[in-house]
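<given_protein>
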Amino acid sequence: MTQPVQFQLLDYPGAQKSALWGMKDLIDYADAQARPLGACAFEVEIRAEPGGRPDVIVLPPALTLDPPTMPQGWRDPLIELHRSGTIMTSVCSGAFLLAATGLVAGRRVTTHWRHAPAFSSAFPKAVVDTDRLLVDLGDIVTAGGVMAWTDLTLHLVQRFGGRKLMLDVARMFVLDPPEREQSYYAPFVPTTTHGDPGIARVQAHLRERPGGDHPLPSLATVAGMSERSFLRRFKQATGLTPVAYLQQLRVDVARSRLELTRDSFETISWDVGYSDAAAFRRVFKRIVGLSPSDYRRRFGAGLRREVG
């Protein structure tokens, strides 16, 4: 049998204890299943600071909505461990600690969608992808949601021990395999703190009338700008083109209707401004990552009607 894979889970001030101990339980169970077969083995410890020569370090989420700060004396050891070959991983707001090392500059990472604006502001060189629940770059693995520690752990068990072992662990703990995306859960949260009153008027106009017809000239008139200036300033303020912004609004309305009503997707499509339900279905799946019928099955309030 090869040397056990060493996991080190770091318990910083304010770290979520359920994540730490839950991950340990999953890894311990994986070890109990794999070790007798002689294929692989896992060892896991929860520590108050980085040290030793672990194969994997995990920075768990914090319990508060405020991002955690790097504990004194951690940065250099984490960088050195990464240089020596340790895989660095984070869950949710733990990505702030990982990014504070400078190791994710110019690289793609994920964190909880709610933390994305603050993360991008604090670490502008990182490429934040909150549509993804898990991003594996080989030497760095990041997971998005607060409970994504289950996805991260199962992913790492599969990476070192194979898919069968991962599925055995998932079945025992009644967990979905790590094949979902954060886009399934994240609502559209438009940027409203840009300080451009003309663009803010357009945002309010679109929010109140997501199913309306919104040609460019009329939006520019609402903003009180020329069409060219409006397009430039809208993208600068919101990060999206007007078309993409309106698509996000319409998908957000459709999400709510799929969750809370029995309305057919054709009716929903018409109400949000699409006469072609098939076209809106494609937009919905591209943005959310699920078809409307799959979304309703997963998130509907006890509803079972098929919607396409």
